[in-house]
Amino acid sequence: MWSSILAVSAIFAAIFLESSAELKGHLKPLGSHQDPVGGIPVTGKFPSPWVFYQEFVLPGKPLVMKKVLEKDNIPAYRLWTDDYLRKNFGQTDVEVEMGKKERRSDGGLKNMTFSKFLHLYQTEDIYQVFDITQDMKKDLNLPLSLQCGGFQNLQETVVLWFSSGGTKSHLHRDMLDNINCLLDGKKEIIFIDKKYERLVMADGWVREGGYSMVDVESVDMTKFPQLQNVPYNRITISKGDCIFIPFKWFHYVDSKPGRNMAVNFWFHHLPWFNSSDCEGVDPYQNSSVPLSSVKEPDPDSETRMLFLQLFGDIKSFYKRSFGDYIQREIPSITPRDVESLKEVFSIFDVNGNNVLTWDELMTIDIVSAMDKFPELFEKILLNVTDGSDLNGELREDPEPIILQEEESQHDEVQRSNEDQSSKVKTPDDLEKEKLIEIADDGNLVMEEEPVRNHHEEL
Q: How far is CA 346 from the centre of its chain?
């Protein structure tokens, strides 16, 4: 009998192994299931704030900025040797991850002085990740792309990543936009467009942490079968390069062996660009704006910006449209919630004119509204952070909804004045920057000068 059972087990094992072998990318590194796609734009400088917003932040598209630290005035790029860091910041307490592979589920963080880390990092499997301290900010300037238009008011933090290389992140996504600048070393990044979230998040997705449990070094396609169908980009950046990673894009970062140091400029997703805020900023010359001079973010800005993600390209709202629009965006909003949203609108509408423009939305009293309607805002914010319906069909990004309301003569005059004031002429309006070069395959390696494609100039 036992021999029969063993024979049957052997047959099933053989069938399983054979079927597993047919799975594309099974037990291989992430990205082995198919060739990468191309199309990540490349530029040789930080784009002006307006171009950066219009072409990349607003549509949510990555951008590689090649060797910009070689040309830009960011002192840390040249100053931050191990000796300099030990001498100037040696007593600073830093957070260190034990091991070279990210471990979010069981912690793995340890505190030590910067000096002790510098003594250990070349010989032990550790890497440093911590928020830049105020005294370290003197060696960093805000990139040109973030110097006006509202970006400068939404800076959340700057994080230092430092190791001897060989570190690997989870496949994850972030709810903030960020510019990652590589001060030393080389990184390979796999990007997956946020529109494929249904496939990426179908199996083993940890919602609370925003990451996948997939083993990026050996993908088990029997546990993560949907990953076989996910297109991706593969990009390699080197010392002196920066890359814009749009919020909600999935990515996995593999730091190559050797001294590896990067800083992330994290900022809330900007829903509206204030052109008038850029008067006096030369879009073609990166003036030095010390990071230490950038004001700390409003403590309510994170919640406010999450809420404002609902509104996309809408220019303004009337009171009658407000609740109906949110109900269209979030099907779980009830008629009773719509009535509550009329009161929310009144809290936001400080001047009482029954119209909310982006000037007002960017400063709304989100805390008062949440205190009065906690369950409503929990429902709204959960929808924003949790993504779209994972049981639905895969779809492209939706077209913006245009709301039309009857306007009084006074409202028409006011809207006309607002439209005129929004059409502020910037140097970008007069002469578009030569900006984008499209890589012709998915393996974008930054050591080589990209081929110029003049048809892609903006």
A: 32
Provide DSSP, 112-175: EEHHHHHHHTTTSSEEEEEEPPTTTGGG-B--GGGSSTTGGG-EEEEEEEEESS--BPPSB--S
CA 236 – CA 238 distance, rounded (Å) = 7
Contact 301, 154 (CB under 8 A): yes
Per-residue pLDDT of 2-18, as tens digits, reads: 555 445 454 444 444 44
pLDDT tens digits, one per residue of 53-62: 999 999 999 9
CB neighbours of residue 209 within 10 Å: 12
Check if the beta carbon of residue 2 is closer than 8 Å to that of residue 8: no
Q: Which amino acid is at 208?
A: E
Provide the CA 348 distance to its chain's centre, in angstroms: 28
Amino acid letter, residue 411: D
Tokens of 321: 């449209």
Give CA separation, 17 vs 10, 14, 26, 168, in Å.
Answer: 10, 5, 11, 28
The encoded tokens of residue 449 equal 């000068």
